[in-house]
Write a structure and sequence with these properties.
The chain is an alpha/beta fold and 731 residues long. Helix content is 31%, strand content 23%. The mean pLDDT is 89. The structure holds adenosine-5'-diphosphate (ADP) and zinc ion (ZN).
Length: 731
């Protein structure tokens, strides 16, 4: 009997390529034959492109015109599991399959054979003559701490020519060697003793070990306040997975958190795991991609795209801080890594652990309904307690204009400085001031390409558009009325807050943590480590600091504007504010010293602010769930956002109106269409944006209806149509 998954020479095969063609193409199997899932190179016009054997050929195309597959690549074939997953993910997100394949093949030099590779690392010498170009190279090497680079990549990252690197090799400051490529990762030892667990940790760990041992799919919400030991507990699930000789993946929401995590993994298992994110060198990415497929790596730690690696046998996916918005990819393929983790795990008999102090409402509801298991860690580990939560009622505080720190908060900070403890001031706004206004004519400086105001960044001495990244010098003359010297910043950003702190606490050591102030993830990591050792009295931070950093001396968190997130009309405004405030507050008092969180608010009676203060989380979620259910919105109904964009304003509205008229396929499943309406940010990078929103009951075939709906209209070439299933943001 012939093997249906094997195609002998000259048989027709269907190849999915990474090119945006929207379909599988027919080729002839090569001399050697090929098998389902093989990675291959095929001719496409004058080029050779990467593809995967996806199935038998369709047969519609004239056989005489078919070209043979050029060669089968020397990498582990793509497993059925991953092919099925990519297909399901494409269907779910309404993304072409080729785009999913591109996500799954982000490995540099995939077609190149293993063997040896010339690599460059930091050497022991310091060069006698240090030019600016040479310094740049050494800075990159230091930034990546010991990593090996290929010549071209190192030169490109440093922004210098390859001859600069070669010059440094001669001085001994950089070493050059031939290293074997794609070595397996060191084995992690699951049986090294972990930390002795507290009773509730042990109960949770044992439940997770059992789940992993079952060898079946399941999802568990692991809920516990920051510092309760969730990481310690899910590392036990990882240990069990390694004992089963299966692979584990831990997703983290922020690259800056990986360093700390790698250290903990090494302490627990005796070696470092594979690392996958944008800050990893190409050599390392290639190695990890291959080793995932060959089983040469037991644990991968990474960003959301690590979900698309070709694991040989994935047994566990942990999504840490599962509620984090960074798990939703907002351009290209619009997917939520948390949901995709569940989808992938379901197809490969793996367990999912969703860890959070403040789960998303979706996850909370799934746990309530029994679809997910739930484990709770109710106390902080050891001595640490949850911080006390207090509101500062801004209506009864007196503040000078241009000042944002209330006298009450100021007094609390002073106390901390005297005791040698740290304070964190939280303000979720990068830059100096969100608005620059002309005092003569009232004009606000906006971006030339977007419908957004430019944000002053004083450290960079520029105005920056937070939508498109466009910058311009801070003008002295108003571009609207021409009056000089009357442009003024309005409202606070972290940089302006830093100025106020310097004026009020001239002696204090201040650290500003904002994603735009650090050249590299490693520089940020280094700064965070310094702060952890106590090298700052006052930390000023954006959202960045809310995520998992451990500052033992921190005992006070001051939220400058607790009302900030409540202003939008966003479906998730309440949920987001609640999560963010709880999380930021959780930064305080992580060791023996008790912490306090103070929220500056103008509306202390707002239900969300009251829920945050009372700490009754279950009551908050029940209330929020009831409201969503009444409104028929997620997770009790379904939403899809449609974003049309084009340089031509008329064209986007015409198409939007056309879509709004032909709702047949959607009304057939009981869905409603809202819009078209200008998007809240109506212009980005010179493209006008119009949105429609589709609201559907749960349990209907929404994707199929959406596909049928948009297929009815013709779209001009420069008009983009993006469909966002389960949208998280509505800008
Ligand atoms: P979470 O992930 O819930 O924020 P962590 O797992 O990071 O909590 O634990 C918080 C701190 O407490 C960490 O420094 C961790 O090492 C420590 N810790 C947690 N559980 C234990 C334990 N059983 N024994 C010793 N230290 C622990
Ligand atoms: Zn812009």
């Amino acid at each position: 009997m012939s093997d249906p998954d094997y195609f002998p020479a000259a048989h027709r095969v269907g190849i999915l390529t990474t090119e945006p063609l929207g379909r599988v193409l027919d080729y002839l199997a090569p001399e050697t034959g090929c098998a389902l899932g093989d990675f291959v190179e095929v001719p496409l016009g004058p080029r050779r492109v990467l593809g995967v054997v996806w199935g038998p050929g369709e047969g519609a195309f004239d056989r005489a015109k078919l070209r043979p597959v050029t060669r089968v690549l020397d990498v582990a074939p793509m497993r059925d599991e991953l092919r099925t997953f990519l297909g399901r993910a494409a269907d779910y997100t309404l993304t072409p399959l080729d785009a999913m394949l591109r996500l799954a093949t982000r490995s540099p030099g995939l077609g190149e054979a293993p063997g040896h590779l010339r690599v460059y690392r930091r050497g022991s010498q310091t060069p006698g003559r240090l030019t600016e170009a040479r310094e740049k190279v050494l800075a990159v090497l230091d930034d990546y701490g010991g990593a090996a680079f290929q010549l071209g990549e190192l030169a490109a990252l440093a922004g210098v020519t390859t001859s600069v690197v070669k010059g440094l090799v001669k001085t001994g400051a950089v070493t050059e060697e031939d290293a074997p490529r794609d070595l397996p990762y060191p084995m992690l030892d699951p049986d090294r003793p972990g930390k002795p667990l507290a009773p509730d940790q042990e109960t949770a760990a044992e439940a997770l070990r059992g789940a992993v041992r079952s060898g079946r799919y399941g999802t568990t919400l692991l809920k516990g306040v920051t510092g309760s030991g969730k990481t310690e507990v899910y590392l036990e699930a990882v240990a069990e997975c390694l004992r089963q000789r299966r692979q584990a993946l831990v997703l983290l929401p922020e690259i800056a958190l990986t360093a700390d995590f790698l250290t903990r993994v090494e302490a627990r298992f005796g070696a470092q795991p594979g690392e996958w994110h944008s800050g990893v060198t190409q050599t390392e990415r290639r190695r990890l991609w291959r080793m995932a497929g060959e089983g040469g790596v037991g644990l991968v730690v990474g960003a959301r795209s690590a979900l698309f690696l070709p694991y040989r046998d994935l047994g566990l996916v942990v999504v840490d801080e599962e509620h984090d918005t960074s798990y939703k990819q907002e351009d290209g393929v619009l997917y939520n890594a948390r949901d995709m983790a569940v989808l992938r795990a379901a197809g490969c008999d793996a367990q999912v652990v969703l860890a959070s102090a403040t789960p998303s409402l979706e996850t909370w509801v799934n746990a309530e309904s029994g679809k997910y298991a739930r484990l709770d860690l109710t106390t902080r580990f050891g001595e640490a307690e949850m911080p006390e939560m207090r509101a500062i009622d801004m209506r009864s505080e007196t503040l000078a204009p241009g000042r944002w720190i209330s006298p009450t908060l100021q007094a609390a900070i002073t106390e901390r400085i005297e005791r040698g403890e740290q304070s964190l001031l939280f303000l979720n706004r990068r830059g100096y001031a969100p608005v620059t206004v002309c005092r003569a004519c009232g004009h606000q400086i906006g971006c030339d390409h977007c419908d957004a105001r430019m944000v002053e960044h004083r450290f960079q001495k520029r105005l920056v558009c937070h939508q498109c990244g466009e910058t311009k010098p801070i003008p002295t003359v108003c571009p609207s009325c021409g009056v000089e010297g009357r442009l003024a910043p309005v409202g606070p950003g972290v940089e302006r807050l830093a100025e106020e702190v310097a004026a009020v606490f001239p002696e204090a050591r201040v650290a500003v943590l904002s994603s735009d102030l650090f050249g590299s993830a490693r520089a940020l990591k280094a700064r965070i480590a310094e702060i952890g050792r106590g090298e700052a009295d006052i930390i000023i931070g954006t959202q960045l600091v809310a995520k998992g950093h451990n500052f033992p001396l921190l005992t006070l968190v001051g939220v400058i504007d607790a009302d900030l997130g409540l202003q939008g009309s966003d479906l998730r405004a309440a949920e987001r504010t609640f999560q963010l405030m709880r999380q930021v507050a959780g930064r305080a008092g992580r060791s023996e010293r008790k912490g306090v969180a103070m929220l500056q608010t103008w509306q202390p009676d707002h239900p969300v602010i009251r829920a945050i203060l009372s700490g009754d989380e279950e009551a908050f979620w029940r209330e929020e769930a009831a409201q969503r259910q009444a409104a028929g919105v997620p997770p009790f109904g379904r939403l899809a956002g449609i974003i049309l964009s084009s340089p031509d304003l008329q064209a986007v509205f015409d198409l939007g109106t056309d879509l709004a008229r032909r709702t047949g396929p959607l009304t057939a499943i009981g869905a409603q269409v809202f819009g078209p309406a200008p998007a809240p940010i109506a212009r980005v990078r010179g493209r006008h944006r119009v949105r429609l929103l589709v609201k559907a009951p749960r349990g209907v075939a929404l994707q199929a209806a959406l596909a049928a709906w948009v297929a009815q209209v013709r779209r001009p070439a420069n008009l983009r149509l993006a469909i966002d299933i389960d949208p998280q943001s509505f800008y």
